[in-house]
Amino acid sequence: MNTATKEKFAAHTSKDVTAGNACLETPPAVFAQLVKTHGPFDIDLTADTKRHLCPVWFGPGSLYDDDALTAAWTGFGKTGYSNPPYGPFVAMMLEKAKKEATYGFTTTLLLPVRITKAFHHHVLYGATEVLFCDKRIAFWENGAPKLDPKTGKPTGALFDSMIVRYIPGIRFSPPRVGSWKVPAHNV
């Protein structure tokens, strides 16, 4: 993440959460494995015209709804996926996913491992499952692997990732914890 993006998130003043390094794209092989293990997904909950992974998606330019936080997810399907813009938005997505599970909607989120107040409140007390990725993900930018500026090769994230799931009718306190095998994906 560049310094300007870090400063925006640190100040909680970022107006455009889809700009710069705020939106790291899910690599196609990682998404395919998520579909295989937890899908299929009816909705990409946080996307835009260039980065949506499902035919139905919420975000800037969507034909269905621009704002995942105000949309009624169950009106568009029963399952959704999100690799949301990181920062304060994650806490809002966790709260929304927890609420939507009470309406019968299953949510699968790909998130950075961060032990925050939101993690304690919405994940430890509401999520069904937390799966820690067995290796770092090499996210994409603009439809291609993010490259290390020094080597020109795909680079892994500077953080570990986890998959957080909310499944209607199934609640544990704390959630089930496990690991998820990240497929080869950096080419």
Concise synopsis of the structure shown:
The chain is 22% helix and 19% strand. With 187 residues, it is of the alpha/beta class.
Task: Summarize this structure as a short list of keywords or feature phrases.
Rossmann fold; globular; 4 helices; two-stranded antiparallel sheet; alpha/beta; 187 residues; seven-stranded mixed beta sheet
Describe the structure.
The chain is α/β, with parallel strands linked by helices and 187 residues long. The strands form two sheets. It has a seven-stranded mixed β-sheet with strand order 2-1-3-4-8-5-9. It has one domain: Rossmann fold (3-Layer(aba) Sandwich), CATH 3.40.50. Helix 3 runs parallel beside helix 4. The N terminus is likely disordered. It is built from four helices and nine strands; from the N terminus they run ααβββαβαβββββ.
